[in-house]
Amino acid sequence: MRLLLFISFILSQAIGFSQERSLTISTSKESILIGDQMEMNVVLRGASGDTMLLPLIEDTLITEIEILSRSKVDTAFEGAQLEYRILSQTYTITSFDSGYFPISPRVALINGEEVESNPFLIAVQTIEVDTSKGIVDIKDIEQVPFSVKEWLQENWQWIAIGIFLIALITIIALKLSKRKPKVEPEIIIPERPANEIAAERLEQLKEEKLWQAGKIKLYYSELSDILREYIEHRYLIPALEQTTDEIINGLRHNPDLSPELVGKVRQLLFLSDLVKFAKENPVGNENEMNFSIAESFVKETTPIPLEKNKEKEDDV
């Protein structure tokens, strides 16, 4: 009696195990026409704690059956205690060959052990042709009347892009038309000669003794402003608003100024920029030399009065 009970227990466990772990493959249709599509569902059933791996199906099921797409693997749980786990995946398949194609079992893995699916059959039918009516000509292309509504529905994206581009071009054109022309800075020529004003300011700077008092930045700022103001009034270059490179570029185009003289002015203005913006700190003799450069430039470029020119011509 005990032996019978033990055997029945073993059989029930085996049956329960076989029901608990299974691989099933089914199709959504019994047959399809050539080129038609159907879904193939792969379902792997096991315990919730099992390690489960669905069959690997590549681009074709067999030579005649092609895989068009596959879904993501879906996971579900069943049972009162959620003791069963089900993995499912759906494939879209098709065939371009007619006939009946048997599909052999596929193999999945549960805890490293193979689980085989059921074999199944896929039937692919051809389109029946009624040969009793004979061969007929191909029908002419039917002319469909033009529909504005359909044309707008098909081309609304391009219409929207065109409207947007027209609006954008219009806005840009309006902004450009309203943009004021660039006004060149007005250079006010003082009533007194530029050289007199520059010489007077240089003398005043010399008396202030700024660099001797350690006010290097203020000293070079004043010296640079005096030189820039003189260049602006003497050569009608907006030097007070230009960079050092722009000022030097303008001076180089003046045939009356030698490259050596322009180079000294560049040296002074460039050093002034370094003192103001890069915290350069020139020593005493450099400060005196740069003052001399500004003073010499003013003297050498001072216009000769007409009376003196006439006296020179008379002496000759």
List its traits.
316 residues, alpha+beta, Immunoglobulin-like, six-stranded antiparallel sheet, three-stranded mixed sheet, 8 helices, 12 strands, disordered N terminus
Structure description:
44% of the residues lie in helices and 21% in strands. It contains 8 helices and 12 strands. Strands 1, 3, 5, 6, 7 and 8 form a 6-stranded antiparallel beta sheet that branches. A hairpin with a 5-residue loop joins strand 7 (74-78) and strand 8.
Strand content range: 15-25%
Q: Total number of β-strand segments?
A: 12
The radius of gyration is 49 Å
Shape designation: elongated
Averaged pLDDT, please?
Answer: 83
Q: What gap, in angstroms, lies between the N and C termini?
A: 155 Å
List the helices and strands in order: HEEEEEEEEEEEEHHHHHHH
Instruction: Sketch the major β-sheet.
Output: 6 strands, antiparallel
The secondary structure category is alpha+beta
Low-confidence stretches: 1-18
Q: Helix content range of the residues, please?
A: 40-55%
Count of runs of 4 or more consecutive helical residues: 8
